[in-house]
Amino acid sequence: MTGATESIKQPRATAGSWYEFATRHRASIVAAVILIFPLVMPFTALAVNILIYGLYAVGFNLVFGYLGLLSFGHAALFGTGAYLCGIAIVHFGWPWYAAIAAGIAGGLLMASLIGVLAIRTRGIYFAMVTMALSQCIYYLFYQAVDLTGGENGLRGINVRTIDLFGLRLDFINPMIRYYVIAAFVIAAFFVMSRILASPFGAVIEAVRENEMRARASGYDVTKTRLLTFVLSGGFCGLAGALQALHLSIVPIEILHYETSGLVVMIALLGGMGTFFGPMIGAAVFLVLENVVSVWTVHWQLIVGAIFIACVLFFPAGIWGTLIARGRR
């Protein structure tokens, strides 16, 4: 009987060890996947879009999945990063690396402004307040025609070469463009992994699980929420800056509430509160969009039906459900 019991428990121990290994080296695993990713994609531009929207979803997931707050205003953070990066290049002639820094700073600043006003609300009220504030930012950028181009968007973000430690990289080349953007995404994943593994990361999850107990333990819940929202803005601002460099334009639609809804879908599809989930959600959604749109102009109907099926059969998201089943 003892031998039979040990033989039954052995696969669980093996699965657990693999899960522990993947958790400990999660950022390195993501980096390895990103490096080989363009080799399995039908075209490089799609792989770049998946990286950028995956990073956008990673920033959103920090608030939604790990902190437990649903925001409908993350388009403001994503769009502000894109616009400030573009404005720095088009109107001020900044180099590409300074423009990316401006995009990150823009995401952090916008998250601070929205967070201070919205972070004291809860549940659906938080979602509605963030959406309302995001729409205010949309109209602010829409009206600033001289800086943003208004409804035509910001154009002329032309970065043809990347000067890096004496090397001149051709940013027009699709593969070089992919790996330059991938370097920033990989660095962001390592930073995110470090945040989640830190004591502050544990406090974030403690606030999500039981706010009253976290407050009773001496943690400042309000400051934790605000700082988490600001950090999320930094990741989203970086994603927006990379999007501006990738497209060479910043359309006004990047600030629309549909962009906020898109990242919610991506996070739910991949698995909220998981490290790999946002990237998987971005990959599944964008690949479906590109494949189905070739067959029909009504691709949103088909992708929506697939999304509903995923929600029904993968209630914790694709990656979240796979983790739950693998740990049984």
TrEMBL record:
Xref: InterPro entries? ABC_transp_permease, LivM-like
Q: Where are the transmembrane segments?
A: 29-56, 62-84, 96-118, 124-142, 178-197, 226-250, 262-287, 299-324
User: Per the record's keyword annotation, is Transmembrane included, yes or no?
Assistant: yes
Q: What is its main location?
A: membrane
- Determine the domain of life of the protein's source: Bacteria
A Pfam family reported for this protein in Swiss-Prot or TrEMBL:
BPD_transp_2
Among its keywords, does the record have Cell membrane? Answer: yes
**How does the protein's chain sit in the membrane according to the entry?**
Multi-pass membrane protein
Compartmental location: Cell membrane
Q: Which CDD domains match?
A: TM_PBP1_LivM_like
- PANTHER family tied to this protein: ABC TRANSPORTER ATP-BINDING PROTEIN, HIGH-AFFINITY BRANCHED-CHAIN AMINO ACID TRANSPORT SYSTEM PERMEASE
**Which named protein is this?**
Branched-chain amino acid transport system permease protein
Organism annotation: Bradyrhizobium elkanii
